[in-house]
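Form 12-C: Joint structure prediction
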Amino acid sequence: MASLRGVAQPELSKKLFKIIKSENHAIGAYESASRERISITSQLSDWGEATGDESVSDISDKLGVLLSELGEQEDVFAQNLEDYRGVLKQIRNTESSVQPSRDHKAKIGDEIAKLKYKEPTSPKIVQLEQELVRAEAQNLVAEAQLTNVTRQKLKEAYDMHFAATIERAEKQIMLARHGRRLLNLLDDTPVVPGDTRPAFEHGSQARQILNDAEEDLREWTPNLEPIPSSATAMGVNLMPAQIGTGTVGTSFSGHEGEPAAIEAGSTTGETSYTRDVSGSSTIAQPESTSSYQLP
Amino acid sequence: MASLRGVAQPELSKKLFKIIKSENHAIGAYESASRERISITSQLSDWGEATGDESVSDISDKLGVLLSELGEQEDVFAQNLEDYRGVLKQIRNTESSVQPSRDHKAKIGDEIAKLKYKEPTSPKIVQLEQELVRAEAQNLVAEAQLTNVTRQKLKEAYDMHFAATIERAEKQIMLARHGRRLLNLLDDTPVVPGDTRPAFEHGSQARQILNDAEEDLREWTPNLEPIPSSATAMGVNLMPAQIGTGTVGTSFSGHEGEPAAIEAGSTTGETSYTRDVSGSSTIAQPESTSSYQLP
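Section 2 - Result
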């Protein structure tokens, strides 16, 4: 995908291309927040030690552990966003792959219009019109694949995005609440000059808080309202999966090196996309004169 | 404070100075994440519109609103961290202001040692020893102020930090859960070529989800275990607040342009820092010969 950067994008995928790029910056910001947070925690522990105050030293060291885990969660979040971004790319790739089909259809239409004006009796017009029917059929498949992929992957992408948001939030709440328990172990009663602070007596409690936090993190499981998808019924051809009897008819794969998995299988039956074709022939065979009702 | 950047820090405040600087980077990362997130949301809405799919357009537009609010919360978080950072600066400033007191005490000690070696009978030794007693008394006050400020402000700073973490998390969970409800309104049942998608019928439900999210945000209130502080009994002199009868004695303010609020008031009574001083004189007056038990 990296090679697509800087290369002119097809019109259709330009917007999503830009979103995916911006998301990369957002993810970078979270990674950077994570790194900073983690680097601060050891500094905090060092500072606490340097105060020479046993209580401050112990508390700041353990605060550092919790804050470091808070920072780790920012990185987990960033990685989850990376997965979400990958799903957006699947929409973008389909968009890119549909563009040539649109262009092809438009180009043949233009050629016919031009020819009808210049040479209204040219026999090439009939040939081009047959070609147009095929191009339109192919494009219909492409557009169906696009809407199918767009809706399914949009749901999937933001399902992941929101799940990642909730995961980070729930884990950070647990950590922050343990952090607050830790702070309660620090006695901030002011002293008068010459007083010595009593020894820190909460070492084992502080240790226990870290253990509790660790256990909470380990036991955390997502608790989400599911987002049901009807797209599970979608076949590898990005069409509704059906009990088809036909074999692969229209191949829509391989446009300009795009992922080759996009294939429209020929199917039969009432809801099949071939239902408007007279007879049972597969659509868009080179010599077919399909009777598609085109929009 | 900005003017302190790049200026050599007293040894005592070097570590915290670095932490405060690193926190600035972390805060910057959250601000940047917020900006990116918010910029993406309008792009998402534009993209949805460009798909020409009414359902995708409506859902992506409203997803954009929720994502934008998620982004705003990153910025609120960053601003809260800025407040936390301000509290760390209070510790750092006290550290900076205590350094000269330590240095002064050490310097007089050195001079005495040098003089005792070179001119053991010098009358200046007596004078310097009186000065040392005063310097030590002053430093005792400074160190008490430092430990009082350190403990109180450490608690306060991380109280704020964790409260900010919990606030962002709780609000983002609400928003993300509403986002998931929104996704459920998008039908991703795959279609066959030539099919037209049914009209989007969930417009009012989608609108309602945004209203719910808005209301949840408005009604959110922090629900935190309090972190009690005993430092509320601390006076403006950074010492235990007491029913004192004395007036301000030792002034500890104004070291190298540091905030001038640090003053040690003279107090009386059993737990007062003047309890070891014979008589009722305030400590560290230029001519006093305090009987402090020094460490």
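Section 3 - Comments
Chain B is about 60% helix and 0% strand. The domain at 10-187+200-265 of chain B is CATH 1.20.1270.60 (Substrate Binding Domain Of Dnak; Chain:A; Domain 2).
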